[in-house]
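Re: the 161-residue chain
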Amino acid sequence: MGSPISRLIAEIFLQHYEDIHIKQFLDTKNIALYTRYVDDILIIHDTTKIPPHTINTYINQIHKNIMLNPTHENQSSINFLDLTVTSKQINLEINICRKPTTNDTTINFLASHPIENKMAALRVHIFRMYSLPLDLPPKQKEWETTKIAKTTIFHKTYSRN
């Protein structure tokens, strides 16, 4: 399992690494956005200024144990965590990404989970819907998913009474 402080040391190393090597790309405006969540990184940049392979080559040469394995956008879209980021003419559009195998089931209604866990599963859907800058159609779709989750968790659980 490793040392309990290994995550902290890794985070300190990555922040130092970013401050020294990535910050220069941000300062020169070669990268418009750099964000990282644990080991998932999203880099948005203008490919007319700097080709994608240039950033990849530079980052892979800095440290022998850090290798960037990029996934380039496909049809102006890329998935990052549970989001789909689509490049439009003047802005970025954010949508919630679901894999084709997703069935939108949160907690089985027969599971003996405490009510707090079932409520937390529902709150995640609601918080994500309101905290992301979604356009109206994706927001309505997420609301429908939330209603399905609510029905799965509560109606089936308590309709037997």
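Residues 99-158 form one domain.
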